[in-house]
Each structure stands twice: as C-alpha cells, then as structure tokens.
Design brief:
With 352 residues, this protein is an alpha/beta fold. The chain has 4 domains: 30 residues, no CATH class; 90 residues, Elongation Factor Tu (Ef-tu), domain 3 (Beta Barrel); 110 residues, Rossmann fold, CATH 3.40.50.80; 82 residues, Ubiquitin-like (UB roll), CATH 3.10.20.30. Helices cover 22% and strands 32% of the residues. It has a 6-stranded antiparallel β-sheet. Helix 8 links the parallel strand 10 and strand 11. The longest helix has 15 residues. It is globular. It starts with a helix and ends with a strand. It binds flavin-adenine dinucleotide and FE2/S2 (inorganic) cluster. FE2/S2 (inorganic) cluster (FES) binds next to loops. Flavin-adenine dinucleotide binds next to strand 4, strand 5 and helix 3. This is Ferredoxin reductase. Its cofactor is FAD. Keywords: 2Fe-2S, FAD, Flavoprotein, Iron, Iron-sulfur, Metal-binding, Oxidoreductase. Pfam families: FAD_binding_6, Fer2, NAD_binding_1.
C-alpha cells in the first residue's frame, strides 16, 4: 500500500471514530473558511421574517462559485450532535456586494433543521455548504410576461429572482394562512407601490385554499405568461393539471420542496450500518436516510427527495424498495442506492 493510500485509510478511520464530527472540523477551529477546505460558511446573522420564518445570512468560504437566481444550496448543520443536510433556496441577489448569501427558512412542526435555524442558530456558527444547483431558474432572455404562483415558504426561490432582475410585466399570486404569515410582505408591497409587481395575496384562513380555476379571474392572461410555481404538492399538482389541460404545460416551471407521491411501503427489516457498527429495526415505509439519522449514523443527504444524489450509498447486502416506484433493488457489487427514497425490504446492510 502506498503512503498516500495509507494516509487516506488512516484519515477515513479517524473520521469513523470522530463521527459525527470530522477531522476537517478540527481544522475549522483554526481556519474554517480557508481555500482548499471543504466548502463551509459562517452564519453571520439570523433575521426574523414572520413568527416562524427567518433569513439566515451566511458568509461562504473561499471556493464559493455563486448562484443563479432560483437555485438552492445544500447546507449541513450540526443539530444536537448530529450533522444533518437540507436544501434551501438562495434568497439573496446574485450581485450582492458584501459576498454574503441568504436563505430564508420556515420552521415546520417537529422539523429538526428548520427549527434549529429559525430559533436556535447563533451568529458565528459554522455550517457546511455545497455549491448551488437546480434548474428552477429564469431563461437567458428575460420573458416578456411572467407569473409567479407561490405558497408559504415556496416564495423563497421566487424572491431570489425578484431581487435579481427587474421584470417588465410580472404578476404574483401568493398564498399564506394570514397576512402576517406572508414572508417578505413589506418588500413585496414596496415593489407593488413602485409598480414593479402586481400582487394578489390569498389568505387561506379566510379565503380558503386557492382554487386553481380562479386564475382565470385573478390573472386573465395567465396562459400567455411564462410561469414559475413553488409551494405544497396540492398547489403544484393542481397547477400542472391546469396548465396541461389548457395545452401550455411547457410554460409552467415548478419546484417541489418535498417528494411527490410515494408508494405504500412493504415489509421492513433489520438494517445494519456496517461502517458505524449499528443495527436497528426499520419499517418498510421509512427512508433509510431517516432510519440512519435516528440511529446516530452520519448520513450524507441534500434534497431528501431523490433529485440531488447527495445521499447515494453502497448497498452491501439485502434489498431495498424505492418509495417512489415500488421497485426492489438487491445488493450486488457496486450497487448504489439513494437512501432518501429507499426503505428496507427485508434485512439489509448499507455502507455507512
Ligand atoms: C430544492 C429545495 C429547496 C428548498 N428550499 C427551502 C426554502 O427556501 N425554505 C424552506 O423553509 N425550506 C426549503 N426546503 C425544504 C427544506 O429542505 C426542509 O425540507 C425543511 O426545512 C424541513 O426540514 P426539517 O429538518 O426542519 O424537517 P424534518 O425534521 O426533516 O421533518 C419533520 C417533519 O416534517 C415533514 N416535512 C419535511 N419537509 C417538509 C416540508 N418542506 N414541508 C412540510 N413538511 C415537511 C417530514 O415528513 C417530517 O414529518 C427546500 C427543499 C428543497 C428540496
Ligand atoms: S438527498 Fe437528494 S437524492 Fe437523496
């Protein structure tokens, strides 16, 4: 074995015994945002937006390549000693002069990372970052007429776009339970006052959920507009159906924060995380990513919905079920699985 290979093995062993903190984290104590380090960022401020949402201001380390408006980035944070990865849309404009970026997070009931970021994260905290990615972006040429259809935290990628360029003709329909739940409300109303945006707020506590057919009345020329929609599955499913029925599906671009329909799970089994040396029982419907995190295993992840491949892990033995399709994958040399959309289908061993 070469000395480089030995060093690499020794480093890996060290990583295993120091889980969930990695040796590189100790270097962070000295020079966290240094060039050549894994990409990291420092939280510099957490600014409340609504009762349950906040904007997190992050200074990325060297190596940050910047984003395109509408993209998201994966961040890794340590919550109660466990490193968890989640995806958040970038809400700052691409030309922000001070080199900082922002994400805006809505705390959801029992949400580990969202509640940590909104309620507990302190300036100075180091987090891990991945380069921004995603294709929920504007085309090169500015569209003549734009429609943004958003709900709840789904406003975030769209706010990134609104802050980035000035549109000639843009209409936004945004849904939130009550006026005080509308994230960025003051800024949106300033754009309206400056005639840079036409906005309809749907307050679902009083108006009820948006019936997508109402678009005809709220935005009569909706079908002529290039549209970007982000929000809960119900709204996006309805929008996709509506745009398809009217023969203009290519005009609608959607971004989902959660996986689409998942198939019912089957029998679960005993899951072994052989690198960590832990074995737990899992049902057939819980993603192995959640099972591992719950067991204190260091599990890489990102979108948690099967799109970013940030959770890919070798399946050493046994079988897993893809929760989107029901398809069973059996272990073979070189077989990789996405732990965020795979559940145990009998006993299995995954290399974490
Ligand atoms: C591409 C992309 C961009 C995203 N951008 C943003 C953003 O800008 N702002 C933002 O606040 N969030 C965003 N999200 C969602 C974010 O990644 C997390 O899923 C969310 O913060 C919940 O994480 P958590 O750890 O708090 O919840 P978990 O601890 O993972 O989950 C707690 C419970 O809530 C459920 N749950 C998980 N996610 C959601 C959700 N999004 N809505 C409702 N219930 C959920 C889980 O099933 C579980 O029961 C984005 C997701 C993706 C894939
Ligand atoms: S976490 Fe993104 S594909 Fe699994």
């Amino acid at each position: 074995m070469t000395s480089a290979a030995l060093r690499s093995r020794a480093w890996k062993l060290l990583e295993m015994v120091t889980t969930p903190l990695l040796p590189s984290d100790y270097l962070d104590l000295i020079s966290p945002l240094r060039a050549g380090a894994d990409l990291r960022g420092r939280i510099e401020a957490v600014q409340p937006e609504t009762g349950d949402a906040a904007t997190v201001v992050i200074r990325p380390g060297r190596g940050w390549r910047g984003h395109t408006a509408g993209q998201y980035m994966r961040i890794g944070v340590d919550v109660d000693g466990v490193r968890l990865w989640r995806a958040y849309s970038v809400t700052s404009p691409t030309n922000r002069q001070d080199g900082r970026v922002t994400i805006t997070v809505k705390a959801i009931p029992d949400g580990k990372v969202s509640n940590y970021l909104v309620r507990r994260a302190k300036p100075g905290t180091l987090i891990q970052l991945d380069q921004p990615t995603g294709d929920f972006v504007l085309p090169q040429a500015k569209p003549a007429k734009v429609l943004f259809l958003t709900a709840g935290s789904g406003i975030t990628p769209v706010m990134g776009m609104l802050r980035d360029i000035e549109f000639d003709d843009v209409v936004m329909v945004h849904c939130a339970p009550q006026p005080q739940d509308v994230i960025f409300r003051n800024e949106l109303h300033d754009l309206v006052a400056d005639r840079k945006l036409r906005l309809t707020e749907v307050h679902t506590d009083t108006d009820g959920m948006l019936d997508i057919a109402r678009l005809d009345e709220i935005v009569p020329d909706w079908a002529d507009r290039e549209a970007w929609a982000c929000g809960p599955a119900g709204l996006l499913d309805a929008a996709e159906g509506h745009w398809s029925v009217h023969g203009v599906p290519e005009r609608l671009h959607t971004e989902r924060f959660r996986p689409g329909i998942v198939v019912a799970g089957g029998d679960g089994g005993e899951v072994t995380f052989s690198a960590t040396g832990r074995t737990v029982d899992a049902d057939g419907a819980t993603p192995l990513l959640d099972v591992g995190e719950e067991a204190g295993v260091l599990m890489p992840s990102g979108c948690r919905m099967g799109i970013c491949f940030g959770c890919v892990t070798p399946l050493k033995a046994g079988a897993v079920r893809d929760l989107r399709t029901g398809e069973i994958t059996e272990a073979e040399p070189g077989v990789l699985i996405q732990t965020c959309v795979s559940a145990a289908a009998g006993p299995c061993d995954i290399e974490r």
